[in-house]
Amino acid sequence: MRTVFGARPLRALVLSAAFAAPILISAALPASAPRHSQSNQSQQGERQNLIKEVRHQLLLLPYYSVFDNLAYRVDGDTVTLEGQVVRPTLKSDAEAAVKSISGIGAVVNNIEVLPVSPMDDDIRRAVYRAIYSEPSLSKYGYSAVAGIHIIVKNGNVTLVGVVDNEADKNLANIRANGVPNVFGVKNNLVVTPGAK
C-alpha cells in the first residue's frame, strides 16, 4: 500500500494509493479458524497504528510545504518513502522521523530532491497564486498542509492531492495550464467528496 500526503491533516487515512483509495487491510480468513482470527485482527490493528504513526510523523515535518509531495508504503516493518521535495533536508528529515518510530525495522528512502532552478521557483509561485487565488479553490489552502500540492520539475507541473469534486479538479488544471512558461500539467488530483 502506498500513502500520499497533501490533504488536510485531520482527514483520517483518506490519503492513500496516490489519493486513490483509503488504506484498507483485508485478510482472507477461513471460517473454521476463530483462534487465528484474533491474532490477525491484532496484527491488523498494529499495522494500522504503524501506518497512522508514519503519516503523523511525516505531517509534523516543519518544512513540508505545498511544493512537496511525500508518499510511503509499509511492508511488514519496512517503510519505503517516495515523492518529491524541494529541500534536500526534508528528504533526510523524513527518513529520520520514520526511523524513530517504534516497530520500524528499515527505511528505504526513494524521495527525489527536485533540481534547483530559478525558473521552476517562479513557476511554483505563479501556479500557487493561480490556483489558490481562485475563490472556489482557496478552501484547499486553509490548513497547515494544503489540499493541492504543486510539484514543478524542469517547467513541468504535477498537481497532487485531494479535491471535493471534478469541477475543482478541472479548474485547478485550467488555472495551472494558464501560467506562462509551464511546459505541461499532469493532473493527479483525486476526487473524494467531503475531503476538504
Account of the protein in words:
- The protein folds into two domains: 2-26 and 37-113, no CATH class; 118-191, Histidine-containing Protein, Chain: A, CATH 3.30.1340.
- α3 packs across α4.
- Mean pLDDT is 82; it is low at 6-33.
- β2 (69-75) and β3 (78-85) form a beta hairpin.
- The protein is globular.
- It has four helices and eight strands.
- With 196 residues, it is an alpha/beta fold.
- The strands form two sheets. Strands 1, 2, 3, 4 and 5 form a five-stranded mixed beta sheet that branches.
Low-confidence stretches: 6-33
Mean pLDDT: 82
Strand content: 15-25%
The global form is: globular
Number of domains: 2
The helix count comes to 4
Taking all Cα atoms into account, the compactness measure Rg is 18 Å
Helix content: 25-40%
In N-to-C order, the SSE pattern is EHEEHEEHEEHE
By secondary-structure content and strand pairing, the structural class works out as: alpha/beta
Distance N terminus to C terminus?
23 Å
Largest sheet: 5 strands, mixed
By DSSP, the count of extended strands is 8
Which terms summarize this structure?
196 residues, alpha/beta, Histidine-containing Protein, Chain: A, 2 domains, five-stranded mixed β-sheet, three-stranded mixed β-sheet, 4 helices, 33% helix, globular
